[in-house]
Amino acid sequence: MAQRALVVGATGIVGQNLARRLVAEGWTVYGLSRRTMPEGSGIIPVQADALDASGLAQALRSLTPTHVFFCTWTRCATEHENCVANAAMLRNVFEALPNPGALQHAALVTGLKHYLGPFEAYAKGVVPETPFREDMPRLSVENFYYAQEDVLYEAAQKHAFTWSVHRPHTVVGYAIGNVMNIASTLAVYATLCRETGRPFVFPGSAVQWHGLTDLTDARQLAAQLVWAATSASGENQAFNVVNGDVVRWKWLWPRLAAWFGLEAAPYPDQAEPLEPKLAQDIGVWADIAARHVLREPDLNRLASAWHTDADLGRPIECVTDMTKSRLAGFTAYQDSTVSFLDVFERLRAEQFIP
């Protein structure tokens, strides 16, 4: 039977990489997004807002996917509003499908905030000791990941399809205009440092600089999503997903610097967040873009400093356990340094950085 995927959030960092992998493997892929899909991708575009139930139903009226991959979210002012809105988006997708009983599997991408807590209480209070494992209990705070999971479980029971939940760490991958993109944010920051002669200072906490951490390549996440959606051992399970290696930022930072022809600056013994720095560099970036004839003069379309600050500013060490999916049969591995360098190479090749 032909496999037909509906990728929700197909222009995002996760959805874009997943959709391209599915196309390469011969799936029919419908890419749902609020923005238009790039031409020539092999993805069938479906333009709609998942928060607009009636518009979504109209957009999906003729689709009967065998698989749904939910790879998007919306950010609201409070976590309670996040819970309401993000649960509604997922629920709207299932309710908008004309024949949800045709679904074989639905996959939901969440993340380590499952263990660390939402942005309002991020890595504060009592958090589980690392490594994070899938059987750790939910935190006693509102969290839109929990709300989304509950919608998924309810729909799976109602329509008799299997499900999987995927919890990546910081996702490293290629996407333009994404609200959570550490690779393009650091590429912009490094370019600014090189072009202005400023020191390339690690902006995060001392714990992150010295401690162990891991990362998730968007391609690694895509591989696990496809595996879980097509493997009996991936059914009805939640899985952590990281690259498989562990790094210290004090080891990785000089390697990223070298790609840009920079020396890594000594750590200043305290966090120096990127958001206030980059807020003052909007005009500087526009000048750099004009001088090098870059495709995107708007710094905010490439950099998501607030999210990079949240990731790099954590006061705790973050290491994620992958035993569960490895024992279940998912054994893919990705070098985290290469994850960044591959994105940098593509950004340069497509004229987003000089």
UniProtKB/TrEMBL annotation:
It comes from the Bacteria. Residues 65-354 form the PRISE-like Rossmann-fold domain. Pfam families: PRISE (PF22917). PANTHER family: 3-OXO-DELTA(4,5)-STEROID 5-BETA-REDUCTASE. This is NAD dependent epimerase/dehydratase.
